[in-house]
Amino acid sequence: MINLVITCLCALTALLCAILSFRGYARSKYKLLLWSGLCFAGLALSNLVMVADVYLLPNYNLGQLRLPLGLLAMLVLIYGLIFND
Questions:
Q1: Helices 31-51, 63-82: crossing angle, 10 deg rounding
Q2: Is the pTM of this model over 0.85?
């Protein structure tokens, strides 16, 4: 039970970071905040898929969806760090 709570809190924290990054981008138009917001949104989605994988659908393996989502989220941030103008 505590593992479910911690996993949900991780997803909510990533979602909150995404929201705050998008709000900061809307105010300042600093592109790195956009890339960070997209990364955190992807990580929140990955965490939600992990909750579904482990707790809601234990008979199905959603790891093949969850891991590429996390990788894609990190690649978005790496792209933003490299090509930020």
A1: 170
A2: yes
